[in-house]
Amino acid sequence: MAKIKHNNFLDTVDTYFSQAKKKRILHLHAEDTSFSGRFITINTLEFYHFGTTGYLGLEQDQRLKDAAIDAIQRYGTQFPLSKTYISHPLYASLENELEQLFNAPVIITKNSTLGHLGVIPGLVKDQDAVILDHQVHWSVHNAIQLLKPRGISVNMIPHNDLTALEDLIRELKGKHDKIWFFADGVYSMFGDYAPVQDLLVLLDIYPQLHLYFDDVHGMSWTGIHGSGYVLSQCRRLGFDRLPERVMLMATLSKTFGANGSVFVCSNKKIHRKLKLYGGPLTFSAQLDPASVATAIASAKIHRSEEILILQNELKEKIVFCNDLLKTQELPVIAYNETPVFYIPCGLPVTGYEMFRHLYLHGIYANLGLFPAVPLKNTGIRFTISRHNEKEDIERLVNGLSKAFEKTLLSSDSSREQISDLFGNPDWGPGYANRILQEHKEKRSSNLKMECYNTITKLDQKEWKDSMFPGLYDYQGQQWLEESLAKVYTDEHGITHRTKFYYFRVTDAAGDLVLLCFFSLSLQKDDMLAPESVSKTFEQKRLKAPTYMTSNVMSMGSTFTEGQHFHAEHLHPEINNAWKLVFRQVEVLNKENHVEMTMLRDFYNEGAFQGVFQNQGFIQISMPKSCKLCFMQPTTKEEWFSSLSKRNRRHFRTEIEPYLELCTLSINQEVSKARIEEYYVMYQNVQKQNLGINMFPWPKQLFLDMNINAGWEFLELCTKDQESKCVGVIFCYYSTSNFTYTPALIGFDYTYNTTYAVYRQLLYYSILRGLEKNAPIIDLGFSAAFEKKKLGAELWDTYAYLQSNDNFKLDMLELTKNES
After folding, report:
1. Which of 287, 464, 537, 768 has the smallest CB count inside 10 Å?
2. Are 504 and 512 in contact (CB under 8 A)?
3. Domain boundaries, position 117
4. Does the predicted TM-score (pTM) go above 0.85?
C-alpha cells in the first residue's frame, strides 16, 4: 500500500535554528579580550551576562587558572595516549579527590555526552528494559539509540509522571530482568527537579528498578561538598552515598569550573567492568593536563568549608532574584532554589520579540527554543551566578518587566494567552486586574472574524466562488457535516463525533480576506507515521484502544483532501487574518481539550510558512496528492494516448487482461445488505493501510452515502462464481466545481491478485470521471506509484502541526528510530 515520505526531524530543527540565527539569537560570537563573568560582548556591545552555566563562578577562580598554567608548563597541552594503556600522572590524584567527594568509586570521562555513550550500553543488558523521562537530556536520548539495534525495550513517560512510571514498571517487570529509569537531577531549561526522593522509595517497592541520573545542572551549587542535587536528596533519606541501584553522571565543567564529567557508581562490580571496557571510555582521548589539574584544584575547594560560603553567596542572590520577580507582573515557571529561571513567552514570535527587547536593554539571556521546549513554550531562560551583582539582578528584573510589556504590544500577544499555553505559571501581583485591563485595551482591528459551527450559516454562493474543490463543495460539506456529527461507538468502545467550525474574516470594506473550515475529532497520533510505527502502536492498542490518540483540531477533515481554505494572498491584512483564526482556534481548543492543531494540504510550502512558524507550527511533509487535470473534456482514447509508452504497456499487461474477467456496475442506491458487504470490504483495506493510519469510518456513513445523490458506488463483480462482488470504490461528483472524487475503496484481498481488483477499480474511477467531463479527477493520497502509471500528477503537499507538548511527537520519533 502507500509508501509515504516522512518528515526528517533534522530538517524541522534546521528551519527554526536558521530562523533564530537570522534574528541573531543563535550562533553568536563573544568578542571580549578577557572575561570577568559579569559581562559579555556581542556585536561590539557589552551586555550583562545572564546566560552562564558557571553558577559559582569557579571558571574565573585564580587558583584554577594557576593550576591549568602549571600543568601545561609541566606536561604540555595534551597527553596523547589512550587511558586504557597509561593515564596522565595527575589522573590518579583527581580520581582520589572525586571518590572522597562522592564517597563512591568514579570514572572520569571526556564529557557527559561521551560518558553516557560509554556507560549506558554497558549498564543495560539485552534482557533489560529502559524508561526515559520525556525531558531527560538529549545526550541521554542519544546514548539510548545504541540500545535499539539490540532489541532492548525503550519506553518514555511524560515529564515527572510517577503514575505513568509505575504503570510501565508493572507492565514490564514480568518480561525483563532489570528496568532502568533515566532522568535529570535538575532539568536544564525550566530549572525544575526530578522527584528523587519519591523515586528512591520506588526502589524498595520494585526490586528490578534501577535509576540513572544526569545531574550536570545540579552539580556544585548544592549538596555536601557540592556533590549535587541527587546526592543531597539521597542524604535526606538517610543515605551517606549513592544506593547501589542508583547511577549518577555529574560534571567537571559548568559549575565545577573545569572540563570533563564523572560517572559515580557504588556498585564495585559494575564500576570495574565499565572502567575496564566502556566504548568511548576506552578509545577516546583522555582529558588534557590543564583540565585535570583544574579539576583537582576545584575538587579541593569543593572538599573544603569554602564551598559552603560560595553556595550561600549564590543562594542569597537566587533568593534576591525570586523576591524581585514576585513584585513584577511577570510569568515565571517556578520560584525555586535552582540558578535556572524561565520566563514563558509562548509562541516563537513572542520569544523573538522578548529577546530583542532584552538585547536593546543591554541584557543577554538565552532563548528557550524548539526542540528543547515545545514550540508554544518558547521563553527566556536566564541564570544567576556569583558573577552577578545585586544591582545587575535588579537591572535584569526591571529589564524583563519592561521588555515583557513591549513584547505583548509588538507581538500582539497577551497574558491570558501565555497563561493558557503554560498551564498557569506563577504571576506577580495584580495579574487578574491586568487581564481585565488587557481585555478593555484590546486594540481595534480593521478585520472582522465570524465563527460558525455549521455551513448552513455561510453564503452558498460565496463558498462556491471561493473555489473549494472536490468533496467539500457546499452540498458535499453539508452532507459530511450532518453525517459525521452523529455520535457513534466503534468496536473497541471508543466514542467518536466530528465537530465542524467555519471561519470567515473580512476587512473594513466587508471584502472577504480569509475563509476556511476546521474539524475536531479523535485521531491516531501515528496517522502519518511510518507503517512500522503504526504496527508497534496497534499492538499496544489491543489492550489500550486510545493509546497515542489525541483530540485534533484539523483544517479540513480526515475525510477530505485538498486546499481547505480561500485566502486573498495579496491582501495587506492576510497574516493578521490567520492570527485571528488561530486565536479563536485556541479558545475552541481549550474548551474541547484539544492536544494538537493541524493545518493540512498546502501545495506551496512557502506561501504562509513564516506566519505559521511564528505562531508555533511545525512544517511536515505529507503524502503526495494524486490528481488528473484536464484543460478540456477528454475522451478515454485521448487520455490513454496521453500516457507514456511505458505506462501504456503497464495498462495492457497489468490491467487490460483482467477487464474481461469482471463486470462493473455503477450504483447510486443499493440494498442495506449490499452496504453491509461493501463495509466489510472497506474494513479489509482500512485495516491493511497503516501508511495512513486512521480510525475506521462508521457503517452509518456508508448508509448516508447510499441516500445522497452526490455519491455513487463503482462495484466490481466476477463473471464466474455467481458474480461475486470483489471490490467497490465510493465516489463523489461535485456538480458545482465538477471534480470527481474516488474517496474510499474496499475489496477482498483474496481476489486482488487473481482479478487485479485494485487496479481495475482505479482504472474504472478514471473512466467514470472522464464520462462526467470532470476537469479534475482527485485520486487522493496513497498508492502514488500506481496512480502515476495511470496518468496522475503527483503534488507535494505539506502540513503544519502545533502541539501542546512535545511528548507525543517525541514518542513518534523514538518509535520511528526503534523501528
Report:
1. 464
2. yes
3. 62-302
4. yes
